[in-house]
Amino acid sequence: MSALYLRRRLTNWIALSLSVLATLIGLGFLAWILWETLRQGISALNLHLFTKITAYGADGGLSNAMVGSLIIDLIGIAIATPIGVLAGTWLAEYANRTKLGETIRFLNDILLSAPSIVMGLFVYTIVVLPSTALTHGNTTFSGFAGGVALALIALPVIVRTTDEMLRLVPSTLREAALSLGVPQWKLTLQILIRAARSGIITGVLLALARISGETAPLLFTAFGNNFMVVNPMNKMASLPQIIYQYANDPGDAMHALAWAGAFVVTMFVLLLSLASRLVLSRNKVSHD
């Protein structure tokens, strides 16, 4: 008995040590990425970065790219959120344990892992090219097209999260509501979604973090712009696209701006991830 106990203790210690080591390695890489982006871009991290538009040389900034990224990301998340929440709700409450539901979940997982450049090419084919034909050959790259491409990337994340969060709601809550004569639609909207609200919000925030650093889809859709543009129907700059463009430039000043933009994007994604964890932890505390 003592030998079995010692073996279990040793196994537990090894597993715990490997888990701690993996965590430290992940945190080490995160700290390394943050330090490297800060070190390389610290010369461009000044007020001009947030107040001036993109221009060649050290006098330029990234204000138009930041505004463009914000607008495009908001368009993408505004399109994906209602569709994703409704689709996830249907999967969890109406298609659960059905062949159709399992098939859709499988296809959603495939879409979740699809290359982002494929999404960009798809939106380029169905949005940009038809609009170009209607305008007699004038290119119609736009921030809206970029938002549609990002929505296709965010959609499977929101569907998967909503589905999982609703399926975690105890079945006794459904049975209690149905026994009182509550209709299924009212049960879903007013009880189940409210119970899983923090998890769904977390999924939306994670989807927003997922799309905020995408570059390839925007090269085929939003294209880019060196001026401050707030109309999503025009070409629009974005931080990932500007980072890609400046990283390929031979000038050191442009490289510094690219690193500074990368640091801003990294911090934005990190803050969104922390916000999603905060929302989820608050929900757990309130339930406890």
TrEMBL record:
InterPro entries: MetI-like, MetI-like_sf, Phosphate_PstA, Phosphate_transprt_permease. The chain crosses the membrane at residues 12-35, 70-94, 106-129, 141-159, 256-280. The keyword Transport applies. It is a multi-pass membrane protein. Belongs to the binding-protein-dependent transport system permease family. CysTW subfamily. It holds the Pfam family BPD_transp_1. Keywords: Cell membrane, Membrane, Phosphate transport, Transmembrane, Transmembrane helix, Transport. This is Phosphate transport system permease protein PstA. NCBIfam families: 3a0107s02c.
